[in-house]
TrEMBL record, chains A, B:
One of its GO terms (molecular function) is S-methyl-5-thioribose kinase activity. Belongs to the methylthioribose kinase family. The gene is mtnK. This is Methylthioribose kinase. It comes from Metabacillus rhizolycopersici. Keywords: Amino-acid biosynthesis, ATP-binding, Kinase, Methionine biosynthesis, Nucleotide-binding, Transferase. Pathway: Amino-acid biosynthesis; L-methionine biosynthesis via salvage pathway; S-methyl-5-thio-alpha-D-ribose 1-phosphate from S-methyl-5'-thioadenosine (hydrolase route): step 2/2. Catalyzes the phosphorylation of methylthioribose into methylthioribose-1-phosphate.
Length: 397, 397
């Protein structure tokens, strides 16, 4: 990992953030501003600025040259700030309604200034609180279809696509996913983090050569399949939402990868929330999963029929082949995400907040079983309705 | 297509080539040099310089900012000169014995100076003349295994691989392959070029939706599967050889693509030569095909076991999966290459030089049938020995 810390780079302070906002005339000259660093992430400073009188606000995000979670010893390229801002602008071309407005970017200082979304709630938190977020999956289905189709060789001319691929070569952030999603959880690696009671289940995963062969193939796809510009980290913690609105944030992991990865990560995080609930409250999540896929497939098909630039899109059966390959890969990627969120370095609150402890352990065992079965049954699952069956099956295992 | 013609660029003349060689001290100061432009390609000037007294020679290759075959109206980026030189140097790290020595490069002038290989013969010409080139397939099998393994995520650390991917983004040259290999021959396109007697066979290809669906999938792999640094144009006209030595030249189409593409193109060109011969003289080509794959698989396996950096390479069955996927894709790519060399823009002398005319037409019909069957039977061919059967079958169709 290389952290090319530009000589012009310095970390913003709260007063520096206010000065920058004023210099850029993002507020009235004499406005009275408050500023709070609200970053709960591991990689960035996030300042929230508000005008005390009008209440209007903006967010100033600055990438740090290291990962806070592990300390300064884990350097991370500041280039991810450029990647994130460029991805937000690119996604904004296709679905401005689902990404924050970008007000200013500075690649040297690794700063992006954007719309304040604090009227909304992080989707993970809302789902943990039992909220329905009724439009979440419809919006994300459309976000996925449009951002992925129009950056793929189906919907973008192949010359422009290759220039974009070059702009979004993102080795440092991809490496995090390669290690933490696709590798470490499947081997006895220091970065793993799980309760001792899960030991036998974890050991079973590490011994399961058939499972690991499928993970190897999925990792290879993540490494080599430059199909479309992915968000790259599309879990429910990267989404702001309420009953009416949805905004996808934090695409610093963006790169050209397999379409199924974004879909699989999102579905996996819905499943993780589902299994954290009592059975009678899970249905809304399964409906979200079905809607995500159905809206994705419908919108992708519409774009394919209306805007495809690739002449082979007219060939009988090609669309069906592409959609079924995407679905199959999404299932496998979802399985990897569920496993790594249970025993890998980065957990999810959906599972970790389960009380009492015994119930948490049982739920995590279900998660591991579900993740493994999804990975091993990619070819047997052909409809989004089947995810529910696999959860039921995992509960009884 | 963009041809960024640098302000420093100018085409070399024969006297300019001599002056350059002297300035670079590639010959003794007072040596008496001859210089001939010997380029028979469509895209470059190629000067052969020789010292009259010692006989020693060098090649100065300069990319032209347009494709000569179609005239100045088809501009081509000079960046392909950088791509070619960088690819030759990279391949030279793994198999110096199979690529020409590079003496000098100038990206601005799009010039590469390299070892003169005129002691050898272009493999296509030698094969058309009925020569055996006994070591050709052993050498190419090793060339393929080493250049592809050590530039893939299996044998190269994933950070370096991504930097290489970026260096080898090659939109203009990839576009030629995308159009001329994977698209135009399968549709009624102006660039196609075939004898009127082939009309019904060509029409049958254009109507064959099952065939075109497979070609669509192969084209998608060419567009998206960034598996290893390909040569990108590995036909028998890109190889110099004699009974003892083999040198692969002209990697200006190099980019990160599916490993099976290089293998498939080479095998296709051996098959095109085979079907141009009488049955009793074909065996040597089938042996070359088997040797190519067997040496490739053996050397790839050796490198995998010795030098793999990817931890999943230790997982049971992964190597076998990777090899069988490469083989399957190679068959499909070989089928596309055979069809496009028969009815597309760029033909091969193996077919075009067949006399009399009627025999040429029959052979081209066999080629079209063979190409189609390979594409449709990718999953049914599991051993290189089976290519021979498919030729026999194509002859009787």
């Amino acid at each position: 990992m290389s952290a090319k810390k530009s000589s012009l780079y310095e970390s913003l302070t709260e007063s520096g953030a206010i000065a920058l906002a004023k210099r850029l005339q993002l507020f009235e000259e004499n406005s009275n501003l408050t500023c709070n660093e609200i970053g709960d992430g591991n990689l960035n400073l996030v300042f929230k600025l508000n005008d005390i009188e009008t209440g209007e606000g903006i967010i100033i995000k600055q990438a740090l040259p290291y990962a806070k979670v592990i300390g300064e010893s884990y350097p991370l390229t500041l280039d991810r700030s450029r990647i994130e801002a460029t991805a937000l602008l690119k996604q904004g071309e296709f679905v401005p309604q689902y990404v924050p407005k970008i007000l200013y970017t500075d690649d040297q200082l690794a700063i992006t200034i954007m719309e304040d979304l604090s009227r909304l709630q992080i989707a993970r938190t809302a789902l943990i609180e039992g909220k329905d977020l009724p439009l979440l999956s419809k919006h994300i289905g459309e976000f996925l279809a449009k951002t992925l189709f129009y950056t793929s060789d189906y919907g973008l001319n192949q010359h422009s696509k290759k220039s974009l691929v070059k702009q979004f070569i993102n080795p440092d952030l991809c490496k995090i996913t390669e290690d933490l999603v696709f590798t470490d959880p499947f081997f006895n690696h220091d970065s793993n983090d799980y309760e001792p009671e899960l030991g036998p289940d974890v050991e079973r995963i590490w011994q399961d050569q058939a499972l690991k062969l499928e993970v190897a193939k999925l990792k290879q796809k993540f490494l080599t399949k430059a199909e479309a510009l992915l968000h790259g980290d599309l879990h429910t913690g990267s989404i702001f939402a309420d009953d009416k609105e949805t905004k996808v944030i934090d695409p610093e992991f963006a790169y050209f990868g397999p379409i199924g990865f974004d879909i699989g990560q999102f579905i996996a995080n819905l499943l993780l929330n589902a299994i954290s609930r009592d059975t009678e409250n899970q249905e809304v999540l399964y409906t979200h999963i079905e809607t995500t896929w159905n809206v994705f497939a419908k919108e992708f098909t519409t774009a394919w029929k209306k805007d495809a630039l690739e002449i082979f899109t007219k060939v009988d059966g090609y669309l069906e082949h592409v959609l079924s390959e995407i679905f199959e890969e999404a299932i496998g990627f979802a399985g990897c995400e569920i496993i790594r969120r249970t025993i890998g370095l980065a957990h999810v609150a959906d599972l970790d907040s389960i009380q009492p402890y015994e119930k948490r352990i049982v739920t995590k065992q279900i998660a591991l079983s579900l993740g493994s079965e999804l990975i091993k049954n990619q070819k047997n699952i052909t409809k989004p309705e089947q995810f529910k069956e696999y959860v039921k099956q995992a509960v009884t295992l």
